[in-house]
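Key result, reporting period 2: structure in, sequence out.
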């Protein structure tokens, strides 16, 4: 397999961030979304106001959660989102803007960009959403339900979740009626489908949103016109007058008050403190207090970085760690920030020999029913190179883009078993906490990566993929034209089919993220089976931070379902 130079390597998505994406098509004249009537800039909110429910984080879980709580029979709900609205960022609207959205990501805490970059202590670049709708507003749009066994293993010990599967399915269906669409499978996605089947990832299951072994086409959150639908669209189901969505509202701490011993009741051990509201900051740096009405709840849906970070900033976490940072301890909950996971991604990117259309993830391979083998996914991009790589000459000005098509096939390690932790480096809530995921540190995960990359190689070796190989000369012996893949970045070892050590080295040297990190407030360790934070009354966490393992090929369907489920 031929490889492209390192200079080209740094220009391609899934390899490094120096690429500049094409301007997506606009949607001039489109009416504002139905939920826009609930949205207000945090600077326009009152200095103090009371609500029945305060939801922190207007993302994948927070939007369906707030919409349902503010529905028929619900209460008065405040949803606080640190970022802006999706309509402020044109690239978010279409699949073609996916690359541009990632290129817009900015690490600066004060930035208005819809995504914030961070690098884990493992040295792997990553991204967290900073926009209403959360990850559903910036991701690749793939939608698929959880592995059925996931519901039987979510939680620990006495706190293993007792899911009502009738309500689970009804909650999925509620989301799907608004956000899930059947994609048109063609081009690279069609070729990958054929390659997976030839590599024995069988049977072909057609289009389905269920997690089933074999090869399938999942749903997409881009509709037939190519327009993105996100969790923010679910806010339209709130009852008018019951929901307020404050954007550019950064929650700095949860207000925690002691409980009168005479009034303590319920769980054992009985909480000694209770949440009574939150303090949040607007874009003008003004402080606001949102307070709970009697019987109300604060619900964190700020994601696997934001939710544990806010608990720690509020004095809920390992007492010794909080004390060392000068944070007064409200509740000693040792596992806050522990059990952090991120599913390793490895893959091969190719510049194909023929034109290919842009496609995000649509077709996936699920090699085994028990979830012990890596999932396989693919995407294709038409992107302009960074200016330093544009060709010089009389017909190529510095402003003329040079486009390149890149196709990728990747494997995602399920679980994973390797885990790390999150901790505060600053008391500034605008800054991302430090996190280490310890990718592939468990031998079981490394073995799955080796098996997964071997499966990727078999897909690339399938006859379906021959058309994407490029001519590289002829053999002196046969005088027949040789055709090889033009690989972007590291190529697989030549003895990939037999050398586990070399393939393991490849996995460790090329590991990246698929942005499916989870944990930090794991069920059974930080929250109980009803997602209530241990030792604190009136405080719950409902998002992917409660997961110990990823729920199938992509988590967004299950996280949105959970937001609906937990508020029903």
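The corresponding designed sequence is given below.
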């Amino acid at each position: 397999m031929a490889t492209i130079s390192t200079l080209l390597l740094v220009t391609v998505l899934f390899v490094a961030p120096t690429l500049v994406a094409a301007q997506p098509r606009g949607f001039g004249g489109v009416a504002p979304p139905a939920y826009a009537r609930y949205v207000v800039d945090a600077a326009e909110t009152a200095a103090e106001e009371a609500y029945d429910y305060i939801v922190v984080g207007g993302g994948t879980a927070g939007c369906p959660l707030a919409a349902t709580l503010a529905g028929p029979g619900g209460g008065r709900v405040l949803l606080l989102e640190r970022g802006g609205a999706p309509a402020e960022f044109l690239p978010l609207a279409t699949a073609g803007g996916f690359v541009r959205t990632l290129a817009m990501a900015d690490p600066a805490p004060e930035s208005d960009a819809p995504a914030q970059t961070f690098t884990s202590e493992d040295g792997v670049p990553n991204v967290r959403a900073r926009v209403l709708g959360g990850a559903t507003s910036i991701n690749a749009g793939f939608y698929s339900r959880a592995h059925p066994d996931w519901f039987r293993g979510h939680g620990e010990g006495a706190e293993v979740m007792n899911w009502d599967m009738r309500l689970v399915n009804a909650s999925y269906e509620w989301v799907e009626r608004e956000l899930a669409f059947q994609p048109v499978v063609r081009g690279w996605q069609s070729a990958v489908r054929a390659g997976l089947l030839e590599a024995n990832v069988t049977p072909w299951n057609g289009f389905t949103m269920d997690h089933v072994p074999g090869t399938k086409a999942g749903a997409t959150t881009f509709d037939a016109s190519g327009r993105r639908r996100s969790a923010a669209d679910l806010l339209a189901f709130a009852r008018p007058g019951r929901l307020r969505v404050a954007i550019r509202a950064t929650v700095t701490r949860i207000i925690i008050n002691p409980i009168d011993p005479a009034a303590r009741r319920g769980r054992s051990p009985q909480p000694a403190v209770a949440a009574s509201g939150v303090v949040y900051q607007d874009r003008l740096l003004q402080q606001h207090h949102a307070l709970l009405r009697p019987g109300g709840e604060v619900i964190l849906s700020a994601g696997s970085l934001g939710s544990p970070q806010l608990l720690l900033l509020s004095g809920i976490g390992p007492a010794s760690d909080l004390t060392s940072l000068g944070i007064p301890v409200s509740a000693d909950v040792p596992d806050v920030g522990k059990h952090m996971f991120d599913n390793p991604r490895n893959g091969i990117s190719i510049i194909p020999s023929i034109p290919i259309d842009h496609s995000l993830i649509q077709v996936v391979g699920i090699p085994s029913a028990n979830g012990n083998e890596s999932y396989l996914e693919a995407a294709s991009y038409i992107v302009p190179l960074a200016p330093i790589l544009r060709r010089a000459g009389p017909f190529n000005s510095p402003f003329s883009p040079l486009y390149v098509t890149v196709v990728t096939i990747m494997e995602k390690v399920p679980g994973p078993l390797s885990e790390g932790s999150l901790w505060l480096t600053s008391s500034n809530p605008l800054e991302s906490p430090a996190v280490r995921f310890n990718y592939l540190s468990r031998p079981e995960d490394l073995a799955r990566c080796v098996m997964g990359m071997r499966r990727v190689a078999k897909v690339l070796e399938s006859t379906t993929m021959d058309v994407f190989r490029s001519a590289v000369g002829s053999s002196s012996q046969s005088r027949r034209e040789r055709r090889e893949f033009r690989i972007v970045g590291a190529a697989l070892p030549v003895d990939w089919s037999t050398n586990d050590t070399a393939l393991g080295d490849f996995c460790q040297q090329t590991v990246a993220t698929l942005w499916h990190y989870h944990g930090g407030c794991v069920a059974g360790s930080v929250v109980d089976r009803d997602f209530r934070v241990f030792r604190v009354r009136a405080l719950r966490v409902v998002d992917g931070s409660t997961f110990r393992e990823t729920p199938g090929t992509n988590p967004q369907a299950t996280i949105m379902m959970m937001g609906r489920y937990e508020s029903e």
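Residues 443-460 form the longest helix (18 residues). The chain has two domains: 36-181+227-342+516-566, 184-217+344-385+400-414+440-471+482-510. This case is discussed further under Risks and Mitigation.
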